[in-house]
Design a protein that fits this description.
Two copies of one chain form a homodimer. By secondary structure, the first copy, chain A, is mainly alpha-helical. Chain A has 21 helices and three strands.
């Protein structure tokens, strides 16, 4: 077998594993969107079985042999093929460390736990969820131990979502950010001008919101012949392939932001998924590179486009037309200020651009403590509320608005939260680079032209898949390593004028 | 290994295969309900892969060994376990005859063909669909040949849907029925009284229809904590397990029957699925016994309950309340007569109880000719229209309302149609037996009490799964072999007074 044959065989196998894995994603999507509750037990079995089959395929010893064969060739291959091989190696080495039983057990437990979490959240009943988190933390510790590595157990989990990231590297970056954010937040909270966020908490007809948000997603480039929007407790985006990308959101009849900005956010993820190279399905260069990079795309479209003054020059008159009774007396500047209101709040996904990262830091620290064994699941509500006071000077009145708000832990996604902050920083840095490259984006947005920006992102980010490591991708696209400068500059330039600083 | 161990191992393997197969059913359901069109290609790959994995599991030589082991034991097992073994043997012997490649190819081709069919139907473009039918007929012939048997190739396909049925046995039964139906239809069409079906072709608000039909499905006993209703081009019911049963329907804003009676029909299927023994998931005694028996349940609830005068004594006032402008001037008797109007029509699923079986016979004969090689896919539209004139004295103005109306062929379901007529006859026979056993059902229906009937069906039909062969099940429940007598008697007793005969 030649190295080229071995590469082709690896690609065939990877495609098969990805086909199965994407089938499991359809089942997970259905579980969140439409499955009746009584279906949960079988769904858990189905997902466990599929996870096991995928894992079998990804850990087949034959893959190790094929990789060795391809790696032995010094022929300078196509750089994308070389990146495929590099990533297949990394994934294989990671996957073979995980016992099949653990993989299946995690799929089964998290499938059931998500249903329990949804009920617990509705009833604000942490005790109901705690035993599930107990199980999940135990399984994730087992996973971390199986994977090993030099750093703390937590890093083994983090690495799954953000290859190359470590808690040792994140901690100072987050500390630096916090040191800048806290005084910035203080300046805003004591500023001379104040927004009127009650504008957004009036009656917004849900059916009209659906059309309005869909229209916006369509205009920024989300292709509905290759995707759709449904409604779930917790918004998410899942791409089965670039040709079938599912967004979800939730609409509140009395809060505009909930639905609209969830759609903009998830559509940002969806644009990335739709921009991947469909012809490379199953190959790493056809897959999203990391969650942090994924989040650069969602936050860029949600905040840097969707909360910009330029965007609303076009969309505010449309909003007034869609919600005439609600918005006829409101002026565009007040609306724009309201959607950019900064205030400590309970719910991460509704948090403003300034406080959002403080929510993330809280979770990052709590997860490290859970995995490190310093915090027990039963102690989470207390610890949560203490940290909320420390970072945001408020504590939630119940666990529904506190430690039960996020789906992640019930889904086994421990080590995922820090990628949100990486995404926020990366989004600002990419957006600044796009502005340098493309010139006047404000004018384009006001005219409904989002295509130049989308094409720049396709070119710089989407089309590459995993060709470059996340840090390298950001460096290539922006000319600098990832840091908080562009993010802080972006906050300054938006919020200083709004708040009259 | 003891025979008991072998049985347990067979059950474990069957459960795994069924878990995978039910995962594929979720994907098929999504394909029909929510999948964006561009997702079709990957969906075909996913379904082909899963079909292959299921087939591998069902044809594993180890199953043959385990079956031989269990069969060697003369110990009088639990009769349900004995039935499981009998059916596993039948399914295994059938499955091992089908090459893996053929199974995967059928899954792939039919997944794509269903999307093509939906487009072809919309555009009434038979030429677009014909090449797909060509492929499917070739694959189904190959399947029939692989399975073999003494009868014509068609019987090998029929047997998959209705174990034990043969075209030689069905043909005279159908001929007898046709000999009775045609004069009966003539009597109605020349009767002194005539219904006013335009009552049903007024404006019926779709959102109100949704609530109305859902309420009816709920009241007859469909459990929405274990199921749901969505909307598709072609209504269907699919049960992933008794705890997750999905119905679909379609609503027409200007035709009441389309939505309402599709829901009653599919809910009948759904009640059967929900009534299977969930603790026997994967075992034949936990699965529906045949499509003919499945159809007895759907037709019973749709026609014998849902089109009865007693049902509408309760539901017509509700209909007037739901659609006040449409129905305020209509009286209950006229409405009941209208929903039972008999007239030759183009669309099978909208056909009345009298003409419905003529639609089935046409398809039955056409399928035999396609598989027998006497009819080419390109010739279907012509042959269809000729037969429509012969049986129903009308011919459709386009193929959308003719040979493109049904999803079955695009899904590879050749040999399926005759089970509809078996279902119609069986429904009437079961319903007559239920009336004998339970006494006054009309009084119960008028009072909204459907539980006694449902419980009788649970007892006589649902709980058994495949414990008895279809013919035996009907005989046990009704005291007689299946025949057309109860069906004709039911038509006579409903339609003679309505039509003033």
């Amino acid at each position: 077998m030649t190295p080229a044959d071995a590469y082709a065989e690896l690609a065939r196998r990877a495609k098969e594993a990805q086909t199965l894995s994407s089938a499991a994603s359809v089942l997970s999507w259905d579980q969140e969107t439409y499955m009746p509750e009584a279906g949960a037990e079988l769904r858990g079995e189905q997902l466990a079985l599929l996870a096991g089959l995928v894992h079998q395929r990804r850990t087949d010893a034959k893959i190790g042999e094929l990789l060795t064969l391809v790696e032995s060739s010094s022929a300078a291959a196509d750089p994308r093929a070389a990146a495929d091989v590099r990533e297949w190696r990394r994934l294989y080495d990671r996957a073979v460390k995980l016992p099949q039983r653990l993989v299946e057990e995690l799929a089964r437990v998290t499938s059931l736990a998500q249903v329990e979490w949804a009920d617990a959240r509705r009833e604000s009943d942490w005790k109901r969820f705690a035993p599930w988190l107990e199980k999940i933390v135990a399984l994730k510790k087992e996973e971390a131990q199986a994977i090993g590595g030099d750093g703390p157990a937590y890093d083994a989990l983090l690495d799954e979502f953000e290859p190359g990231a470590t808690s040792a590297a994140l901690a100072p970056m987050f500390a630096d950010l916090r040191a800048k954010l806290v005084p910035f937040l203080h300046r805003l909270l004591t500023a001379p001008r104040r927004p009127d966020p009650t504008i957004l908490r009036r009656r917004y007809d849900v059916e009209t919101q659906r059309h309005f948000a869909r229209h916006a997603a369509e205009e920024i480039g989300f292709d509905f012949t290759r995707g759709r929007i449904d409604e779930t407790t917790h918004p998410f985006c899942t791409g089965f392939s670039p040709n079938d990308v599912r967004l979800t959101t939730r609409y509140s009849p009395e809060f505009f932001n909930d639905g609209f900005f969830s759609v903009m956010h998830e559509a940002g993820h969806g644009l990335y998924e739709q921009g991947l190279d469909a012809s490379r399905f199953g190959k790493p260069t056809g897959e999203a590179v990391s969650l942090g990079i994924h989040e650069t795309q969602s936050r860029l479209w949600e905040n840097l486009v969707g909360r910009s003054a330029a965007f609303w020059r076009r969309w505010f008159p449309r909003a007034q037309e869609a919600f005439p009774r609600t918005l006829s007396e409101v002026n565009a500047d007040d609306f724009h200020f309201a959607i950019n209101a900064v205030a400590p709040s309970f719910i991460r996904v509704d948090a403003d651009e300034v406080t959002y990262n403080l929510h993330v830091m809280l979770r990052f620290e709590m997860e490290q403590a859970l995995i490190g064994g310093d915090l027990k699941p039963a102690e989470v509500p207390g610890a949560w509320n203490v940290k909320m006071r420390e970072y945001l000077q408020i504590a939630p009145p119940d666990d529904r608005r506190g430690c039960l708000q996020d789906v992640h832990w019930s889904a086994g996604l421990i080590g995922y939260f820090p990628t949100y902050t990486l995404g926020n920083l990366g989004a600002a840095q990419l957006f600044a680079a796009a502005r340098s490259a493309l010139g006047d984006l404000d004018g384009a947005f006001s005219a409904g032209e989002y295509r130049p920006l989308l094409e720049w992102l396709r070119e710089q980010v989407h089309q590459h898949g995993m060709r470059y490591k996340p840090a390298e991708l950001i460096h290539n696209a922006t000319g600098r390593p990832l840091n908080a400068d562009a993010f802080m500059a972006s906050l300054e330039s938006k919020f200083a004028p709004l708040y009259g600083l």
